[in-house]
Write a structure and sequence with these properties.
The protein is built from ten helices and four strands. The chain has about 260 residues and is mainly alpha-helical.
């Protein structure tokens, strides 16, 4: 039932909190947006360096023969240093001040948190930023995110962070007309749901209205089939979407008893 991978933490008050991990697709989307922003910043940096500093450096540092090679080397070194500061500072600045988000992460609705659930501080953001080149240029991070259970790149492991999906504002769940009738019959079975299965059912019910009809039908069929097999529920022809809503309702009713 690993449709959405989750990450659980237990607070000092022994309250278990569950977060949905961001996933490779969301992280790539956020990275593309961030690199577009970085590209604009680096372009401005190049314009400033070559439009403002060039004339001063080339004139003041040229040798007696007018050889500008040394000045060009200095200019290249300064440009690389400024580019590195912008590249790392971009992620450190935003993830620290925006509580784990950059412009790209904000657009993708994902966020960095520490393993104890708190926002990252300056130390965690700096470690993630410094290890980012190794994660991205050598594709180490991509392999770790795709194949790791917690979807953590190297920077996340060192900094002790995870990337999660932002919890949307809870929306009222509209049950199909037949859901409560079906849910009455499913009440004893619904309480057999494992915690990760409940997270998946709840996630589907809360998000299904945002899916396209075809994607909603396919996802509902796949989830209903897996749950019916695991819970040993006979398929009586109930619509998969209704079945999942009924299971959601029955579980909630049982939890309130």
């Amino acid at each position: 039932m690993n449709v959405w991978r989750t990450f659980q933490i237990v607070t000092p008050e022994y309250t278990e909190l569950s977060f949905v991990l961001a996933g490779p697709g969301n992280r790539l989307y956020a990275l593309v947006v961030d690199y577009l922003c970085l590209g604009v910043a680096l372009l401005l940096e190049a314009v400033l360096v070559y439009a403002i500093l060039v004339s001063e450096i080339l004139q003041n540092f040229a040798d007696a023969r007018g050889n500008w090679l040394g000045a060009l080397l200095w200019l290249a070194a300064i440009s690389l240093l400024v580019a590195f500061v912008i590249y790392t500072g971009y992620f450190v600045w935003f993830e620290t001040l925006w509580q784990g988000q950059t412009p790209g992460k904000k657009v993708a609705h994902i966020r960095v948190i520490r393993e104890d659930g708190r926002p990252p501080g300056l130390q965690e953001a700096t470690l993630r930023a410094l290890l980012r080149p190794m994660d991205e240029w050598f594709l180490i991070g991509a392999y770790l995110v795709m194949f790791g259970r917690r979807e953590k790149r190297l920077g996340d492991w060192v900094a002790g962070t995870v990337v999660i999906q932002e919890t949307p504002t809870p929306q009222p769940v509209t049950l199909p007309p037949a859901a409560m009738d079906v849910g009455q019959a499913l009440s004893p079975i619904a309480q057999q749901l494992l915690p990760d299965e409940w997270v998946v059912v709840r996630g589907y019910v809360q998000r299904c209205a945002q899916l396209r009809p075809q994607a909603r039908r396919e996802l509902a069929q796949a989830l209903a089939r897996q749950l019916q097999t695991r819970l040993d529920v006979l398929d009586d022809g109930t619509d998969p979407d209704v079945f999942l809503h009924a299971l959601y309702w029955a579980y909630q009713q049982g939890s309130r008893l």
